[in-house]
Prior knowledge:
Helix content: over 70%
Number of helices: 5
Distance between the termini: 28 Å
Order of helices and strands: HHHHH
Strand content: under 5%
Mean pLDDT: 74
Largest sheet: none
Low-confidence stretches: 30-34
Radius of gyration: 17 Å
Shape: globular
Amino acid sequence: MRNRFMIGTAAFLLASANLAWAQQKPLPQQEQQSGSTVSATTNDGLRTMLDKVETKGIREALVRHKGNKKRTAESLGISRSYLYRKLSEMNEP
């Protein structure tokens, strides 16, 4: 288990994905048989959701800790290097 933040994020994504999946209309029979189209689309959607949840969690933690990156990383259960990598991806200082 890498950290508490990722576990919480994964649980949220699974719940969101199940809800989103249940609300979708069934795919046409041809697309259901191919399988690859469905899994690629689902994986892209989950990755996008994960990125959004991570970004929101990191931003909220930064505000809560008044920009202190060491305390932010500790509270999220991630390393400072991972936090800096994510901040770089988010184009944050």
